[in-house]
Amino acid sequence: xxxxxxxxxxxxxxxxxxxxxxxxxxxxxxxxxxxxVVPQVVRTSPEANEANVSxxxxxxxxxxxxxxxxxxxxATFNTPMDPASxxxxxxxxxxxxxxxxxxxxxxxTTAVFTAPNDLLPGATYTVTITTGVSAxxxxxxxxxxxxxxxxxxxxxxxxxxxxxxxxxxATSPMLSWNASAGAETYRLQVSTNPLFLTTVFDDSTxxxxxxxxxxxxxxxxxxxxxxxxxxxGTSTWSTRDFTTIATAPAAPTLASPANA
Length: 260
Known about the structure:
Structural class: mainly beta
Strand content: 35-45%
Number of helices: 2
Oligomer: single chain
Helix content: under 10%
Radius of gyration: 32 Å
Distance between the termini: 118 Å
Order of helices and strands: HEEHEEEEEEEEEEEEEEEEEE
């Protein structure tokens, strides 16, 4: 029985020869053969057509240093790329017809565009990875382009209850408002001063659309207001007033059974 098997090195060399002959792929300097993979973008951040992208999306160094927001856009490839081909002329960020300046870097299989200036709220951005990027001489077949839009400043919340000018309200009322599109948090303030020079309640971390307030004084007019916030900014205030019950109720007169 013939026990001679093909030499694996010869098979690899033959496969490499076919690959090079058919596609023009080249060898890496160390002799490791590029497997004839045409570079492709397989993942982006933000994603294609993603809406309401947070303007607080930052790089980790900036976040840890509590520095100003640095906007980061990434594109991940299906194969290691030539780092020299990843540069501002091949990784382009535009808003409309304006090209935005930024720095471009590359690590592992991911290209990173860092915009030092704040992106605008409610704006659409277009990103293009051109065919100038390459993996060992093999270029992408076509430009890769995608778009995303940033957060818009949320509208002012619509207050629900108590009604404007309501009277005889409990001293522990539930204040409520409608959800504001795109809001991440709400700020609620309650004051006895219509200019809110001082407050009896102030919370800017509310994520729901209602809050019960306790400890109010009877027979007092209170002013309350709510705004909405996300990464793009803060809405204007929505304001109302109400008055708590004027006096405590009289003691009830017992009717039945008779005393003793």
